[in-house]
Amino acid sequence: MSARNSRDAEAARRCARQDQARAYARDPRGERQDRHTAFVHENIAEFAPAAQAAYREHGRGAFLIDCADEWSPGNAQARYATDTDVSALGGWPDDATARMVATYDPARQFVVIIREHDGISAYKFRAVPIGRGA
Question: What is the pTM of this model?
Answer without folding.
Answer: 0.72
